[in-house]
Amino acid sequence: MKNTAQEHFEKEPPHTAIKHRLFKSVYDSCISISSSFNNKTKEKRQFVYLDLYAGCGKFNDENLGSPLIALNSSKTQLENHSNNINKINMILSEQNAENAKCLFKNVQEYIDNNNLSNNIVSTVLTESWENCTEQFKQGLNNSDWGMIFADPFSVELKLPDLKSLIDNNSKLKDILILINT
Question: Quick check: 117 pLDDT over 70?
Answer without folding.
Answer: yes
